[in-house]
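pinging the channel bc i need a second pair of eyes. not urgent but kinda urgent?? the chain im working w is below, pasted from the shared doc
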Amino acid sequence: MSNQPANQDSQFTTLGRRIFGIFIAVLLVIYALTNANSGQGGTVFSPGQNPSSTTASQPSGKPASFGKPTKSSNCVAVNGVQDKACTPGAIFPTATVDQICTPGYSSSVRNVSTSTKDQVYAMYNISSHFSGQYEVDHLISLELGGSNDIANLWPELASPKPGFHQKDGVENYLHSQVCAGKMSLQKAQELIASDWHQVLNSMPVARAESLGPEPTECPEGCG
């Protein structure tokens, strides 16, 4: 009989440890689920954010969305078109037509660091290049609501033509169409992310020639 209190204490101690263990396990599960749904990553045409994105410059602080890369190395651009597995495109989901059509908008949200550009070159296996040979380009341009997310960046050649200078003209053309109410912003984003050459080939020749490349302060282009 004298051992009963000791046995009861031992049982209570064991039960307490089990309850504490269960509590810790529940906390770990909650933590894992919270991180899994924190907004990192995304799927095409749904909200998402690449871990390398620059959120500080995004309208309303919302994550970039449009696409999620399925690989981050050995990327290959073919015939002036980005590797869509590496560069599917990304947008600021809260960017409005009024915002992008306001002069100075692109400059206000542009934020791509040198280290990010180096990462983009590495993704496409470009170890060296000379000034003006490439532009680390925004696939969906900032003036069309594109973001600074690495999913929206790729190294685009100036030549052979059409190269990044001609794409600048396409960006300007689509921007003018959206701001004139002749095309939805979503449609413009989809067109340029799919294959901007198709837009170039369908543009009125006179319009394409008059627009030309966008003036830039960047030695390798601004995207």
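so The CA atoms of residues 57 and 109 lie 5 Å apart. and The first helix runs from residue 4 to 36. — does that match what u expected or am i reading it wrong
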